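Reader question, answered in our methods column.
A reader sent in the components of a multi-part assembly and asked whether the whole thing could be modeled at once rather than chain by chain. We filled in our standard form and ran it. Here is what they sent:
COMPLEX SIZE: two components
ENTRIES:
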Amino acid sequence: MASVLRCSPKLRTAARVPAARALSTTARLRAAEKPYFPDEPTAPSVSTAIPGPKNKAATAELNEVFDVRSLNMLTDYNSSIGNYISDLDGNKLLDVYAQIASIPVGYNNPHLQKVASSPEMITSLINRPALGNFPSADWSHILKTGILKAAPKGLDQVFTAMAGSDANETAYKAAFMYHRQQQRGGPEVEFTEEELQSTMNNQLPGSPQLSILSFKSAFHGRLFGSLSTTRSKAIHKLDIPAFDWPQATFPTLKYPLEDHVQENAQEEQRCLQEVERLIKEYHNPVAAVMVEPIQSEGGDNHASPAFFQGLRDITKRTNVLFIVDEVQTGVGATGKFWAHDHWNLSSPPDMVTFSKKAQTAGYYFGNPALRPNKPYRQFNTWMGDPSRALIFRGIIEEIERLGLVENTRITGDYLYAGLERLSQKYPQHFQNLRGKGQGTFIAWDTPKRDEFLAKAKSVGVNIGGSGVSAVRLRPMLVFQKHHADILLESIEKILKLL
Amino acid sequence: MASVLRCSPKLRTAARVPAARALSTTARLRAAEKPYFPDEPTAPSVSTAIPGPKNKAATAELNEVFDVRSLNMLTDYNSSIGNYISDLDGNKLLDVYAQIASIPVGYNNPHLQKVASSPEMITSLINRPALGNFPSADWSHILKTGILKAAPKGLDQVFTAMAGSDANETAYKAAFMYHRQQQRGGPEVEFTEEELQSTMNNQLPGSPQLSILSFKSAFHGRLFGSLSTTRSKAIHKLDIPAFDWPQATFPTLKYPLEDHVQENAQEEQRCLQEVERLIKEYHNPVAAVMVEPIQSEGGDNHASPAFFQGLRDITKRTNVLFIVDEVQTGVGATGKFWAHDHWNLSSPPDMVTFSKKAQTAGYYFGNPALRPNKPYRQFNTWMGDPSRALIFRGIIEEIERLGLVENTRITGDYLYAGLERLSQKYPQHFQNLRGKGQGTFIAWDTPKRDEFLAKAKSVGVNIGGSGVSAVRLRPMLVFQKHHADILLESIEKILKLL
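And here is the structure of the entire assembly that came back:
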């Protein structure tokens, strides 16, 4: 990701004072910077109860054909802009949830508008290829100027997929094929007749009882293989058959980190030992360890670079693959393009999966041996979607042009400092504030979390939770200091309503 | 699908004689009809060996970053049109493979071009929603005028997905949740503490050892759950852990069908008995039976309506769900909008999955009890892609406008008759010609299948196989009689090369 990281930020310094409605005292301190979206609202505006009357009526209609019990808000995407999401009743909320952390460069980003209306987008939308068989003549160029330009250091190959779950599952498949290939003695060793026969019946030895090791509270998706590695909440897993795969404990760190250095290091050591023990002892041999840099759905659980270095070293030592799930952390949100860039690993992960802010999905890898030994072992009709690859390329261009990774690092530090001040003022509402130095990937626990989230819209903020007690911030990469100011004010308003 | 089926075909009768290169005698018999794509080539043109020099060079470049061992042909989508696919060296082939049966209304279809450049397409591309949380205000309208307009009779709900594999897996999840809900005694019965605990460890009773019954030679996808029901080829399954789920025998019919009525009926009865026995006896209880109307990847294996009626009746009787995988058969290719429309079932399937020619994916269902009892049990970030839902709507509009289901039925009958003539002339090259009355969904076995496929491009046809010995035809819905004439001529040319 060298080219993106080298690009200097284009944060402008021209003074700008938000207009609109009356502002509290903190507003006077509001950082002066030029907005990426000059036409964005200067502040949220809320004119009805949320959901308002139009939203309610439209929801009832949608409910006839589509499950609306998870519905948060029917959205008017045409009038959403930058960091602001609009509902059907004309309310405009500062959006720090961003479609579950998946909008990277703002609603109705003008550069993406251009990409979306380009001739190559139109042809890719209407002539969807079976990518493994009939890629377009410019597929190599699209990959090299897009998805692969963002590839993590050391990983120069990609398998494209559709969303996080199948990105993870295809990575698991690659791991299993690689593991068995090593056991067989190399790519040239042929399958046995017994393997060929037994796999047709889902039985050993052709369908081996291998496993992926994941962590407690992890979230890696909801299809059958990925769900077997997901350990976030029972409601995600109940009633669905699962593979007998092992889970290790993810460290539970104490905050603030600087006051618990020794304890936290011990906790991480304990977890690493458990990983190594499971790899060595689990009855279904482990082909790969799967981990999120920051457990996101599971409650924003962090670990130190030392922990991940330890994982890399253990997996090397035990000859197990190391897969990093960057579906939620990837593409800039932690102040680095990839969250694992924070770790200084001794060698790159074997595979890194991506989706969400990439607006497409897949996994990166570097070792050619992770290409299965024969064609059609890792294959499907579409193998992703070139139109979404074009969007990702546009996102990368916009990140480079505006220096958005750097912006997120700087804004994140600014926001974190503001939250520290709030946590000192309202200690009863802030526990385990975390994400320092991790861009805007910030969270804290609060006893009245669900009430907090429910009140947020009334003060003009769209905000999400994670785990059972965390408020999680997932603003876009175009979230700036003046947005942070509004968010901090809004949080204080919510706290006063609790 | 009433509205689509009612629409009368717009096949025009104006005379038209193909120009271009010298034509064989059959060309004189060529059906006179107005083409849907007036600018289509009148015949294939091949000016280099395939792959040609440009193709070879570009393939080598792509190989640096992307697995090209399954590559068939680098494609120039800009100059592909209608039924003709162009390669990088300017060769134009009549395409009866159509991106593994997934292009419905022709390359660069003008109506889809309009849809793809519409303002609502642009907003849906650049503001991708988390559909379960923040659907656009017009999502209900898009569903009702698109995906649900095509819904099979009796199924008025949809869960949207990304591709065939996850469409099938989310249908399986719905089946498992429904099965356990019935066992518990209804949607209002709460999970036990033991279930909540055990599922976090992938263990019983929270993660039950239930199964999906599928058929030998079936193909339902390549993710972990779908792959456990796929039984097409060992290479699809080797080294990947699989669930211990049962497979029943799919009927092996003898052709021509009219000469083997009694035997085939007995064969189907035998298979139905096996299904019933497996449902009653398999050690991992069966929650659903999954079946393709025509086994496609597995070799174009057909069964009669009586067989599928039998499956519907058995599943009703044994209280097991009946899921029909219309990923490859759906959207018109068999001369009905859905292949299961051929069956006259006593009651609709419980779920029908779709992808490929729909250019989006998901599953239809009718019973509200198939919505899980609580939200967030069937959920993921994107839950499909509205931009692809807009394309499907455009496809449905085009099918209606041109009467393409009817066209496919008529052209299919015409093509089948031509193939029957060829099979009488070249009996050594035609075994088990099948797909009569099934639109253009036609196949036959041939001893030199792989040679046949390899020679096809040299005579200007892009054609695919299925199973180990079948040539499978999967033209688009805009395939007309004059294309059928060219295809028949081309097949004869290939046979002369063998």
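What stands out: Chain B touches chain A through 125 residues (CB under 8 Å). DSSP finds 16 helices and 14 strands in chain B.
Send us your own complexes using the same form.
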